[in-house]
């Protein structure tokens, strides 16, 4: 009797989910630690943020796997598009049933465009695997809402992808005379990873993505980790700055070329390097006391090693542009997302997120 009741309840739940038409737009996230919300918690890897003081300003002061003191970029975008909650990490056991309807997050700290990026982290979800999980997700969703509704949800969803930084800091420049730096000059490496990224984005489009925000790298040479290793007087690393300066314009050019080929503005280039520059060059204008020293860390600029319970920890995270040696604070993330929402063509090409949402509300 109990088994029959459970079966009937399960069937009723599935039926109610199947009849739901998703009102809030679904949101899918791919990429690295800048957008990971906890997938790596479920993997045997050192690239994790599941212990304090990570999450010190997150609701409940919980370390969730976000590389932030609080909310990260996907959380803030999710809030901006009217979602009641941020999509869960795909590997979370709670990622089932109605949770599938709001989208999911496939990002994994340490990954890059290339499969050999982040090898030191061992078990991470490389971008090809993230795409395979996206296929698997769609199959699971179809079983609940049917193939037609599943396809509609994916086609109408917003997608965010953040890759590229690790292909420099955790690959090309990871060690002196790295394999990739022996294989390519920087001027040849950048077009190579751009061409590989193009394949990733085409695959994403083939899997149904129609509106994709693609963030560039930040100013790689200015993060506290690189200042600690490469800077004598607090100046940004010229070599890593050159890398970012080559990568970001070529990324935008490639995205606009893809849009032209597809015949639609599927891919939106978010110039996060320029946004970072705004508060790195003039932190006081944004209410930061420093854009060089991380809030959590140790050594010069608090840029050495990981953020741990034993690290130096600033009392007020809102006045630091960087939370840890590599990642922006929640407040810096809010500035980045504001530019994604309302930024001019210099920041968002060919349009910002507010324009996308306004256009979609008219269709």
From TrEMBL:
<dbReference type="Pfam" id="PF00657">
    <property type="entry name" value="Lipase_GDSL"/>
</dbReference>
<dbReference type="GO" id="GO:0016788">
    <property type="term" value="F:hydrolase activity, acting on ester bonds"/>
</dbReference>
<dbReference type="GO" id="GO:0016042">
    <property type="term" value="P:lipid catabolic process"/>
</dbReference>
<keyword id="KW-0442">Lipid degradation</keyword>
<protein>
    <recommendedName>
        <fullName>Zeta-carotene desaturase</fullName>
    </recommendedName>
</protein>
<keyword id="KW-0378">Hydrolase</keyword>
<keyword id="KW-0443">Lipid metabolism</keyword>
<dbReference type="InterPro" id="IPR051058">
    <property type="entry name" value="GDSL_Est/Lipase"/>
</dbReference>
<keyword id="KW-0732">Signal</keyword>
<feature type="signal peptide">
    <location>
        <begin position="1"/>
        <end position="24"/>
    </location>
</feature>
<dbReference type="InterPro" id="IPR035669">
    <property type="entry name" value="SGNH_plant_lipase-like"/>
</dbReference>
<dbReference type="InterPro" id="IPR036514">
    <property type="entry name" value="SGNH_hydro_sf"/>
</dbReference>
<dbReference type="InterPro" id="IPR001087">
    <property type="entry name" value="GDSL"/>
</dbReference>
<comment type="similarity">
    <text>Belongs to the 'GDSL' lipolytic enzyme family.</text>
</comment>
């Amino acid at each position: 009797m109990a088994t029959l009741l459970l079966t009937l309840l399960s069937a009723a739940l599935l039926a109610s989910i199947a009849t739901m038409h998703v009102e809030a737009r679904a949101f899918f996230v791919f990429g690295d630690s800048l957008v990971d919300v906890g997938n790596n918690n479920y993997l045997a890897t050192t690239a994790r943020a599941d212990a304090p003081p990570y999450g010190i300003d997150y609701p409940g002061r919980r370390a969730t796997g976000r590389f932030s003191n609080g909310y990260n970029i996907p959380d803030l975008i999710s809030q901006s598009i009217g979602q009641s909650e941020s999509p869960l990490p795909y590997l979370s056991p709670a990622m089932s049933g109605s949770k599938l309807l709001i989208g999911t997050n496939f990002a994994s700290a340490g990954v890059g465009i290339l499969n050999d990026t982040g090898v030191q982290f061992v078990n991470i979800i490389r971008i090809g695997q993230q795409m395979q999980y996206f296929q698997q997700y769609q199959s699971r969703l179809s079983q609940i809402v049917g193939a037609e509704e599943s396809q509609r949800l994916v086609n109408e969803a917003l997608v965010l992808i953040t890759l590229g930084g690790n292909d420099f800091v955790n690959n090309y420049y990871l060690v002196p005379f790295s394999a990739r730096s022996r294989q390519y000059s920087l001027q040849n490496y950048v077009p190579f990873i751009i061409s590989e990224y193009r394949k990733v984005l085409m695959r994403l489009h083939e899997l149904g993505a129609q509106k994709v925000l693609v963030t560039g790298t930040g100013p790689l040479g200015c993060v506290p980790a690189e200042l600690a290793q490469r800077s004598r007087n607090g100046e940004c690393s010229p070599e890593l700055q050159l890398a970012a300066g080559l990568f970001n314009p070529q990324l935008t050019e490639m995205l606009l070329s893809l849009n032209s080929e597809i015949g639609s503005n599927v891919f939106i280039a978010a110039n996060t390097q320029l946004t970072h520059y705004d508060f790195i060059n003039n932190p006081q204008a944004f209410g930061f006391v420093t854009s060089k020293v991380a809030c959590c860390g140790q050594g010069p600029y608090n840029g050495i090693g990981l953020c741990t319970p034993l690290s130096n920890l600033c009392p007020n995270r809102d006045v630091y542009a960087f939370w840890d040696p590599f990642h922006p604070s929640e407040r810096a993330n809010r500035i980045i997302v504001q530019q994604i929402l309302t930024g001019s063509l210099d920041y968002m090409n060919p349009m910002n997120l507010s324009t996308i949402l306004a256009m979609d509300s008219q269709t």
